[in-house]
Amino acid sequence: MILARSLRWGAVLIVLATTAAAAMAQDANDYPTSARAEYVFGCLEANGETRQAIEQCSCSIDIIASLIPYDRYVTAETVLSMSQVRGNLGAQFRSSEQAASALNDLRRAQAEAEVRCF
């Protein structure tokens, strides 16, 4: 009876641990494939279209994805794009504290990716 109860609790703990591990893996892999591909294509244009560059650029987006969530990445990419717009609209993206924070997060992640992958 005690053994059966222990086995049931063990099974419950295994299921919970597996579910938690899957949830963490899902969180770490929240970047859609299209976003990863777009990043790699841009990276290849900047670094040469070689086999080594493919490996380095793929590594780079994987590192970035492990450091910042996808919604934060989208925010930073939007800030980068919109800050190039002239006039009031662009100025709002260049001067916003939230925009600067998101951009700084992305730049730190890119710097870490550069160190690890290139």
Strands, helices and their partners?
Blueprint lengths: L1 H27 L4 H15 L3 H17 L2 H13 L5 H8 L1 H21 L1
Key features of this structure:
118 residues; mainly alpha; 2 domains; globular; disordered N terminus
Short description:
The chain is 86% helix and 0% strand. The chain has 118 residues and is mainly alpha-helical.
Shape assignment: globular
What is the mean predicted local confidence, pLDDT?
Answer: 82
Structural class estimated from helices and strands: mainly alpha
Q: Estimate the strand proportion.
A: under 5%
State the share of residues found in helices, binned by percent: over 70%
Number of strands: 0
Radius of gyration: 20 Å
**Poorly predicted spans:** 3-26
Q: Measure the end-to-end span.
A: 58 Å
What does the main sheet amount to? Answer: none
Number of helices: 6
> Would you list the SSEs in sequence order as H and E?
HHHHHH
- Count of domains: 2
Describe this structure in words.
The chain folds into two domains: 30 residues; 86 residues, no CATH class. Helix content is 86%, strand content 0%. It is built from six helices and no strands. The relative contact order is 0.10. The N terminus is likely disordered.
